[in-house]
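Before any further analysis, we paired sequence with C-alpha cells, yielding the entry below:
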Amino acid sequence: MGPIAVVESRWWRTGNHGVRQLFEAVAAIHYENPSAIYYDMFADRSSLETVLRARSEDGVSEVIYVASHGDANCISPTPTTAISRTEFRNIFKNCNASGQIKGLFLGTCHTGNTETARFLLQEPATKLEWVAGYSRAVDWIDGSAIDMVFISKLAEQYLANRSRRKHKQSPRKMAHEAATRMVALITNAHNNYGFNIYFHENHKITSMFS
C-alpha cells in the first residue's frame, strides 16, 4: 500500500462523480495496483472521525486527501452536515495521537486558506506537518487535475525515499518538492485558485506562496 489515503463525501444529492477512479489510476501507475491508495467515504462528523481513526492506525497512511464541498471555515458534505474548523481540528487531535498522519490536502473550495492552515498546524496535538489546499472556489475538473498531479508527484517522492538508505527526506520536504513540481507544470494554480501549501516551522507558519 502507498502512504496516501483518499477520504471523500458525496458531491450531489441526485448524482455523484467521485475522484476514486482518478486516484486509482495514479495508484496503478506508481504501485501497479489501483487499490494501493486507501479510499473511504464520509457523510458527517462522526463518519469522518471513524474513517480518520482507521487511517491513522493502519500503519501505512501518512497523507490524507479530503474531497468535499467547503467554504472558508467548514468542510461541507451537505448544507446540513457542515464540519467546522474546530471540529475538524478536534478530529485530528483525537485520532492522530501517534502522529502517523503527516500531511493533509484539502480538495475543497475555499477551506485551504492561511487561517485554516494556521489553526490546524499551530495546534501541536494534531501532529500535522503540512496542509495544502485552495483559498478560492475551484472548478471540479480543474481541481481534480491539479490534485492528481500533486498526488502523483508526492507518490514519486515517497517511492524514491523508500529506496534511499541514507539521507531520507522528511514528509515535509517530500510534500514541498511535490508541490514545487506540480506548480512548475500548472503555473496558475495559485493565481487562479489560491493553491498553497503550508508548514509549521520555528513557531510560525510558512508557505510556498506569501
Observations:
- Residues 2 and 36 are 5 Å apart (CA to CA).
- Helices lie at 20-31, 45-56, 85-95, 114-121, 140-162, 171-185, 189-193.
- The chain has a mean pLDDT of 94.
